[in-house]
Amino acid sequence: KDILANEEIRGSYLKEADGSLVAKTVKVGPLTEQEKAAEDALKAKRAEMRAAKAAAATAAESPAAAASASPKP
Fold this sequence. Notes:
The chain is an alpha+beta fold.
């Protein structure tokens, strides 16, 4: 009754053993600037981790290519 139509809602939930979902947190309204900054930081960190993982996979697939790409002392 306190939430209006088309209002932004977000939150988290827990999944019970029987498969049902129970709300853990519910937030009403748009993200704050602090929440937006935290979300952007998390996205950037995930992108860095994906890039590092992809680079490691590429190096593992082709050790010779990785060795030739590295600077020589």
